[in-house]
Amino acid sequence: MKSILTKGDNFIVLLATVPQLTEWNNFYVIIGAAAASLTGLMFVVVTLIVSVRNRNAEAPTAAFATPTVIHFGAALLVAAILSAPWSTLWVVSLLLGLTGLSGILYIIITARRISHQRDYKPVMEDWVWHTICPFVSYTVLFIASILLLTNPTFALYFIGAVTILLLFTGIHNSWDAITYITANPSQERGS
Which of 126, 154, 129, 128 is nearest to 140 (CA)? Predict the structure, then answer.
């Protein structure tokens, strides 16, 4: 940690910077911009789904579309956390750990939603991209958040890999939804 002393009127202020995080700044600017853009694109995807499909398809939306937005949002959140000017790593570690733990719990809920919805029978690829990849991402994020305190350089590479995997998972799942909708337009529209 690099410390900078500045002298104010009647006090000395200690400003601390975490150099390991500043080295990753450009990476997280790119990841954050991609995640925000892709989140917006998901709104277009959902609009297309609603215009083509049954409007009463809440279960598949909760099982497949909403988690994709959550993954993009998680990548954006990680980018925001790691781009903020933190003075200590323990706060970053705590926030990333909570994000990872929340993601793990959300994937458990998602797996339950996927298995309970009846509009679409998931295949192995669906389980891999909608549950396994995100579960691995959030688990690695949680573990890396703990490692961040003892080996920040090593942990930051894993956190970077997690954000990329979350983005690619979201991209795959968005593409999968659109191709499924366009390839199977025969389902009748609801009112």
Answer: 154
> pLDDT at position 144, please?
97
Question: What is the spatial distance between Cα 63 and Cα 51, in angstroms, rounded to a whole number?
Answer: 18
Mean pLDDT of 67-77: 91
Query: What residue ranges do the domains of the chain occupy?
Result: 20-183
Model confidence pLDDT, tens digit, residues 17-51: 567 777 787 888 889 888 888 877 777 766 766 66
Structural element, H or E, at residue 3: strand 2-7
Strands 12-17, 2-7: pairing kind: antiparallel
Q: Are 35 and 72 in contact (CB under 8 A)?
A: yes
Please give the average per-residue pLDDT across 127-152, as a whole number.
96
Q: How far apart are CA 170 and CA 167, in angstroms?
A: 5
- The winner for highest mean pLDDT among 52-56, 58-62, 116-120 is 116-120
141 vs 101: CA distance, rounded Å: 8
Cα separation, 120 vs 117, in Å, equals: 7
Q: Are 28 and 82 in contact (CB under 8 A)?
A: yes
The rounded distance, in Å, linking the Cα atoms of 57 and 55 is 6
The torsion region of residue 54 among left (phi > 0), alpha (psi -120 to 50) and beta comes to: beta
Q: How many other CB atoms sit within 10 Å of the CB of residue 140?
A: 18
> Residue 14 pLDDT > 50, yes or no?
no
